[in-house]
């Protein structure tokens, strides 16, 4: 799908467009946080860091189909290992799902990661999101570890999946 690209985005320029996208993707946001997207959700997308990381490790892209924002991707570089990229969120507008755009986006991310010398992609997926998990597994991600809810967490059981970057990515 050659009309799909990843465009770097920032809160200063793109906050309102990301809020609009997350409002369109209400189904997933409600599943994840229990309510529709708001400013705090978007701030979190741009600012929330995994343990031990700082905001300069975060990379944010819009998934563009031509001039339209079809989705967003957030990555933490160097988490959990120095040569890992942790995909914190990949979210498409429902109107753009199920047509291979996610597959194209992962191909683009794998290539970017390989060019940056990254060895592994990782992410966690909610147990409550079996379609999401089957997407990642079809893309070659495998079980890394279980990440059950803890008393301090948001109550979701998750699994962490990993993908080893290859020479031909
Ligand atoms: C998961 C997601 C990024 C995949 O992108 P996509 O363009 O829809 O995927 P593709 O068209 O390349 O592949 C289709 C597969 O994606 C998954 N998928 C399709 N629609 C989905 C949906 N509404 N929610 C979750 N996964 C979905 C299914 O595994 C589907 O395979 P199937 O048709 O055999 O069931 C996208 O569907 C999405 O944004 N879903 C909601 C948010 C989400 O679950 N993000 C992942 C969090 S870990």
Automatic annotation (TrEMBL):
| Keyword flag Ubl conjugation | no
Tell me the keywords, alphabetical order.
Acyltransferase, Plasmid, Transferase
Record-annotated N-acetyltransferase domain positions = 4-166
Kindly list the GO molecular function terms attached to this UniProt entry: acyltransferase activity, transferring groups other than amino-acyl groups
Q: Which InterPro entries match?
A: Acyl_CoA_acyltransferase, Bact_Acetyltransf, GNAT_dom
Query: What protein name is recorded for this chain?
Result: GNAT family N-acetyltransferase
* High-level lineage: Bacteria, Pseudomonadati, Pseudomonadota, Alphaproteobacteria, Rhodobacterales
